[in-house]
Amino acid sequence: MRIADAVSSYSDDEAIFRTRTQRVWMGILLACLLAFPFVVSPYLLFLGCLIGIAVISATGLNILVGLTGQISLGQGAFMGVGAYTSVWLANQFALSLAVTLPLAGLLTALVGVIVGLPSLRVKGLYLAIATMAASVILHFVFVHWESVTAGNLGLNLQHAKLFGMELDSDFKLYFVIIPLALIAVTGARNLLRTRIGRAFIAVRDRDISAEVLGVNLLRYKLLSFGLSSFYAGCAGALWAYFFKVITPESFPLEVSIFYLAAIIVGGMGTILGPILGAAFMTLVPEMLKVLTLLLEPIIANAQVHLAPMKGVVFGILIVGFLLFEPHGLAEIWRKIQRFFRLWPFKT
Amino acid sequence: MSDPILTLEGITLSFGGLRALNEVSFDMPEGGITTVIGPNGAGKTSLFNTISGFYRPQAGRVLFRGKDISRLHPPKRAKLGLARTFQNIALFRGMTVIDNIKLGAHSHLQTGLLSALVYFGRARREELELREKIESKIIDFLEIDHIRNLPVASLSYGLQKRVELARALAIGPEILLLDEPVAGMNREEKEDMARFILDLNQEWQMTILMVEHDMEMVMDISDKVVVLNFGEVIAQGKAAEVKENPEVLKAYLGSGDVADMRRRLGAENASGAG
Amino acid sequence: MDWLFFIESSLAGLCTGAIYALVALGFVIIYKATKVINFAIGEIMMISAYFFLTFAGIFAWPLWLALPAAVVSGGLLGGLTEKTIIRPMLGESPISVIMVTIGLSNILVGTAQIIWGGGPQVLPGFLPRQPIFLGEIYVSSKIAFSALIAVAMLICYLLYFRFSRGGVALRATASDQAASFSMGISVPRVFNFAWIFGCMATALAGILFSASGGLSPHSGGMALAILVVVIFGGLDSILGALVGGLIIGWLETIVGAFWGGEYKMLAIFTLLTLILVIKPYGLFGTKEIERL
User: Fold this and answer.
1) Which chains touch C (3 or more CB pairs under 8 A)?
2) C-alpha Rg value of chain B to the nearest Å
3) Which are the contacts of A8, defined by CB distance < 8 A and separation ≥ 6?
4) Span A38-59, mean pLDDT?
5) What is the mean pLDDT of chain C?
6) Average pLDDT over residues A246-273
7) How much is the pLDDT for A297?
8) DSSP letter (8 states) at residue C209
9) Confidence of residue B274 (pLDDT cuts 50, 70, 90)
């Protein structure tokens, strides 16, 4: 049991990690992340990178949906914009990831702001459909702007360099993706402590009152769309560097739904939620795959049912969490922590 | 008391055919407590919403220190120092008490996106300064230090009203607009709130515009009372004068004259239909 | 421009539009009564078509039994959905409610794949095949008869909601839930009935679509157009559903016929974007009044 967490200054009270225990655990976590690629199999390393990318995108979507309360079904298409931008820049001008990544993010942010314009007049389903319309239109652009996107054939990434180093293995990419994911999460966490984060939440909770209290709705809704798409664009760019090939079908509507599901399962409006959700939703299909391999000897053609089972499980997770734990994995995690904080006095 | 800080000139506001405010004009003296009273549906909250800029009147002007702010967007008016509370508590349920109060200071903070993301330099300094200021001035004054880190949803009604006042104070108000500050409170809570309002007025020299139904409190603390009925100002002046005004008595108690009541109801129906 | 082709396409488009209008009506009934936006509408269409396939194809029931049975099953599926996963979400944020229906749609697609297999299937033919000629104008009789059935169902619904007790209860609930409840209308039952009725309309439309367009677990994607219809017409407007259905069906078919299938989605979603800019709440939708 931890007894007290008294603080003696406002700056301590405003800190992210308020106790030493928290800082120690954070250190251990960072050490584990650092050691991870040296000890695990290539398959787990692959998953680690995938989760890192998903964390960035989910954190971005959470800023828009979880904190600002705007529905978006455009996250997948935004990732597509980032992916195409980075690959095109890298191939055309032999640019380093250090240049293509921020440019991809910025262009996607611009697209996001444009897509977010209807949010000034419409909410709820109307906004969801407006963002869906944007993703249909973007998909059309990916297919038909052949001089840039090469249409349905897609693009191959030919020049994947960072600081003169060829990004040719998951091992190297891991050390690009994970630090970026950490930066992305820290950025979101910091944002929450400032006036911008508060304004986002105010817009979510009571937009009109927020306006009367001095929050410019136009600016903050668009800022949220822009920032969230910036995250999506960066995640998309990393996705392209990771898979080396992109086609219009890499970013269907299902990707947007996947990320919405991830933040719901993880816990909307929290910082931890999107991280847990992105990791969990990435791992579930893999766990199902393992399960079917195990069941293969017992149930004939278990493999055939893998794809449909993935869909069913995905759906059940969304519905189940919304019905039974609407605050997601983050809340479950908090309950576990509370248990140990009071243990062994309260059982 | 000197020049008026806020002047309303001929404010007319209608929703469809329904006229909520009709040619409403009055001044607010700087440093005073002005109270708007009137029966339910008289247009008091519509008047507040017009002053904060949420409603755009069809005619008339709102002047702040002699400057026309009628076309100004609500957040800009907040920045000028028009701070308000709401009749139905409008706290942000997803935030703690301290964050709700900090939100009030939103328009005076400068932190940009980049510095917010790294929480370094200006962002950090500004947050800590703000925290100091809120703690030492507002939280102490309103005696809410014990609840500062709680989520607002867990608070009692009276405390929520107090947090709303705290948030309005964080705006750094030139004029404090209080929409029924003591409605629904028990006696003790009412007295606390009345004390805060008086302190704000006398010690902080704050100008206050208030809508309130509690006549005892209105008569006790108001410097000026404006009476609205069916969207029109039927009387204004010192509390004692207004109290004796026959029009006001009629609006509140009825005239007892059946013919007059018929006439008024007739007029009401006609305006409703038109 | 080939005017004959244009008229033929327009007729085909309006026929498709009639079926769209039927689905949109189902959607609007559910929305008006329960304020729930049903993203699983396409999957309910798809599952209902599989019900019909099972009854008419596998059980070899006669048409007069199989078709109503499939429609009613679709309705019951809707009722069950409402009871089990929608009711507990009452009062939650729109994001959560939308996501619940999206989750449901994933479950339905996977279930259909497991039960009926992932490949495309053909429904037993129950619509006449001889082409119809109106003068020189050719109309596919499958589509024309589908449209006739859809219109018949639409008329039944409109009459029912105009004149029956249930219809009045539904409209009362739509305008004020608390007041209706205190007047003795069982609002939970109205919710349930709205889902059953809404999904019956959806089910019939699903069967009609699959009868001419084929069926697979992923057929539910056709409902994207329905979302456009309801936004275009206005979410809470029955008139909007009818007009929107016809316009979107027509536009989609014309664009498909003259420019090619890949432009269909682009066209209707572009139209949608324009409508959102000009009239944010659709042609006939009610503007949400905001209060402080």
Assistant:
1) A, B
2) 20
3) none
4) 94
5) 89
6) 93
7) 80
8) H
9) very low
Name every chain C residue with its beta carbon within 8 A of the beta carbon of B90. Answer: 292
Instruction: Tell me what pLDDT residue A87 has.
Output: 94
**Which chain B residues are closer than 8 Å to A212 by Cβ?**
52-54, 74-75, 78, 84
Neighboring chain B residues of A206 at a CB cutoff of 8 Å? 90, 92
Range in A5-14, A122-131, B226-235 the model is least confident about: A5-14
Cα distance between residue C70 and residue C202, in whole Å: 11
Nearest to A54 by CA among A313, A279, A257: A279
Q: What distances in angstroms separate CA C215 from CA B269, C45, C206, C218, C222, one per listed residue?
A: 60, 10, 9, 8, 11
Residue-range domains of chain B with CATH: 1-81+174-243 (3.40.50.300), 90-172 (no CATH)
Most confident range, picked from A292-296, B146-150, C46-50, C128-132: C46-50
Dump pLDDT digits (tens) for A203-234: 999 988 999 999 999 999 999 999 999 999 99
Radius of gyration of chain C (CA): 19
Could you tell me which chain C residue has the CA closest to the CA of A303?
C114
At B2 the pLDDT is 61
Give one word for A222, left, alpha or beta, with left for phi > 0 and alpha for psi -120 to 50. Answer: alpha
Q: Do A312 and C96 touch (CB under 8 A)?
A: no
Judged by a CB distance cut-off of 8 A, whether residue A331 touches chain B is no
Q: For B111, name the nearest residue in chain A, comparing CA atoms only.
A: A195
Beta strand residue intervals within A2-151, DSSP E: none
Asked if C286 has any chain A CB less than 8 Å from its own CB, the reply is no
Question: pLDDT tens digits for B73-92?
Answer: 999 999 999 999 998 888 99
Q: Is A249 on the interface with B (CB under 8 A)?
A: no
* Shortest CA gap C30–chain A (Å): 14
**Domain coordinates of chain A in residue numbers?**
19-251
In this prediction, residue B268 carries a pLDDT of 56
Residues of B in contact with C292 (CB under 8 A): 45, 49, 54, 86, 90
Q: CA–CA separation, A90 vs B30, rounded Å? A: 64
What number of C-beta contacts closer than 8 Å exist between A and B? Answer: 102
ipTM here: 0.88
Which one has a higher pLDDT value, B124 or C104?
C104
Per domain, the residue ranges of chain C are 22-219
What is the band of C244 on the pLDDT scale with cuts at 50, 70, 90?
Answer: very high
- Largest interatomic CA distance in chain A: 68
How far apart (Å, rounded) are the C-alpha atoms in residues B177 and A312? 54
pLDDT confidence bin for B267, thresholds 50/70/90: low
Nearest to B127 among A193, A205, A211 (CB): A193
The minimal CB distance from A318 to the residues C99, C288, C292 is found for C99
Chain C residues with beta carbon closer than 8 angstroms to that of B45: 292
Q: Which of residues 154-213 of A touch B (CB under 8 A)?
A: 187, 190-191, 193-199, 201-202, 204-206, 208-213
